[in-house]
Amino acid sequence: MGRQPSAKPTSFDIAYLAGVSQPTVSRALRGSKSVSAATRANIERIARELNYTVDKNASSLRSQRTHTLALLFFEDPNPDESMINPFFLSMLGSITRECARRGYDLLISFQQMHNDWHVAYQDSHRSDGIILLGYGDYQLYLTKLEHLVEMGTKFVRWGSVSEEGIGLTVGSDNIGAGEQAGAHLVEIGRRRIAFLGDASDHAPEFQDRYDGLCRAMRAAGLEPDAALQRDAVSSEDSGYAAAVSLLASGAPFDAIFAASDLIAIGAMRALAEAGLHMPQDVAIIGFDDIPAASLTSPTLTTVMQDMKGAGTLLVDALLSRIEDRPVERCILPARLIRRQSTAV
Amino acid sequence: MGRQPSAKPTSFDIAYLAGVSQPTVSRALRGSKSVSAATRANIERIARELNYTVDKNASSLRSQRTHTLALLFFEDPNPDESMINPFFLSMLGSITRECARRGYDLLISFQQMHNDWHVAYQDSHRSDGIILLGYGDYQLYLTKLEHLVEMGTKFVRWGSVSEEGIGLTVGSDNIGAGEQAGAHLVEIGRRRIAFLGDASDHAPEFQDRYDGLCRAMRAAGLEPDAALQRDAVSSEDSGYAAAVSLLASGAPFDAIFAASDLIAIGAMRALAEAGLHMPQDVAIIGFDDIPAASLTSPTLTTVMQDMKGAGTLLVDALLSRIEDRPVERCILPARLIRRQSTAV
DNA sequence: CGCCATAGGGTATACGTATACGCATAATAT
DNA sequence: ATATTATGCGTATACGTATACCCTATGGCG
Lengths: 344, 344
Fold this sequence. Notes:
Chain A is built from twelve helices and twelve strands. Chain A is elongated, with a radius of gyration of 25 Å. In chain A, the strands form three sheets. A six-stranded parallel sheet of chain A has the order 2-1-3-4-5-11, with helices on both faces. In chain A, strands 7-6-8-9 form a four-stranded parallel sheet, sandwiched between helices. Chain A is α/β, with parallel strands linked by helices. Chain A starts with 10 loop residues before the first helix and ends in a 7-residue tail after the last strand. The first copy, chain A, folds into three domains: 11-54, Orthogonal Bundle (434 Repressor (Amino-terminal Domain)); 68-172 and 307-331, Response regulator (Rossmann fold, 3-Layer(aba) Sandwich); 174-305 and 337-342, Rossmann fold (3-Layer(aba) Sandwich). The interface between A and B is large, with 47 and 47 residues. Chain A binds a DNA duplex through residues 8, 10-12, 20-27, 30, 33-36, 39, 54-55, 57-64.
């Protein structure tokens, strides 16, 4: 009744009530084995009654561990920023949940791609590890990653797993996903399959998807035609331009695998303007399963990544690295979502 | 060369190099006026050279201020979670940027609407203030808000400003936005305008939009017809159902103002299935300007909220409250985006 | 019966910063 | 010339926790 709600209880309060010393409280709550079961139970009960929470600042100060992870989100430098991939938003949800579950706080920070990356350095003081998130051109800051490694900063990033580059990478099974998409197109009888998306070092994830497509085609006895590949970054305009270029080349094709839904949507616009029917004339598959994919006409077949799994795995992997445990798994399966654009 | 990169410099290191005491360093860097300009300049120079950053844990522990804000995001309990309003994502970006600019960290936490809200209590220990974000049914936790007020926790929430409820609220000018939408529909000659969206206390933002619509109609000498209003929550399915119900009623209408783009998209599906042409038979306006709004056919006229401004303003208002300054402004303008669905 | 290992927990202290207080020196006032 | 006040800074200490170290009681062993 007369209790001040603002009077945060400390470990001393608990110690007093439990008739032990403050360090014993600390040990009990941290799970040290040099405290008897009875004492521990008593302390935990009192702590619960008082609504006690460990003061993170004091704890971090003393132990030099923050129990906080930092999330650096790299925004696409491309203009239609409202189109930020919803994939990352879902991931954000599962990341925060996993952090909470493991008793970590999550510090978040958006980065302009070219900007003060040294913020990462700052954040490395404030967190035990860093999660790097972003689509697109990782090349831009690979040298910065090396810098992080040098400083011994623990981090994990989302991207192409096959690449085996700097640091620890977690990502979808882009190759397998590409194979699924390719196999599906082959299955519905398509032979000349185009690919829209950078197939260069700049976008390893896109390249993996292309590799998967090629693998599926070869498995079906088809040889991928390099003339049917067009570079594109993940935007509607870029997809439109790529499809226009493809159409202009005159090379015949009966299917398109786009490296992202945005690219696919742009391409669909170009195809429609050219008077082509989907999927009759050209079947099309995207990637990401963004909400808009079910609004296009025809609705877009696409590949869905495991967003919840991704967040969990990123946090898991990072914590493993922080605690110097080996990281077991860092590839996530993807799943093909069949819609009208490949329904023959 | 021989410097250990991991040896974080402390205020003592700086004090030693500057030939002063540690407290003087602290004072100089915090901007206390009881340190001479020369001393301060010298200290700042050394700090910069050493790449010194204040240890936030120590600082917070001593000052009992965390320089951290917590963001509680309330997820819609509705199933199509991938459709999380992109509006909030953009807001997230500007919130993080504004926090960074003001020297605050941002702790983020997603909440299931009905779940352990008492997490907010925990977070109130770890942050100086809380930002509450979420669309939808705020009623559910109004009692919890009262609890926060009781505990003296500083917070600000996104929502209907007109409502004047508990705590500090920042939001778009929903009434003005509704007026703009209504005026536009009247301008293109529509007389019987339907409204899809909860017009109840449960969704004050939607109610404001409806009120704005009514105001615009009355200003044009039209009387809103209550029979043309249908409840709907922000989802495609709900919008579809509402439109179907409206059509079934047989009441004539020549325009729809939907309380959100998702509702509008669902309604468009129902209209198309009923063989109605947009905008000839029925003009339609949504709200939010989600990316999908420019993908529908016809493309959707909608109201765009000032996302960047919203994040900035939320942080601003919260910091004002924390520092016991009056809050000046908490309403943001919205802008009508004209597309095909109202282009006669 | 003495010796040592072990369990269980107390004592003292460190983490890095911010602030109350005191103490000079210098600048003004009386 | 003395009293008064402001300026600029040092001294001491507190914030709440975690950990290195030490101590006691007990039990096992020879």
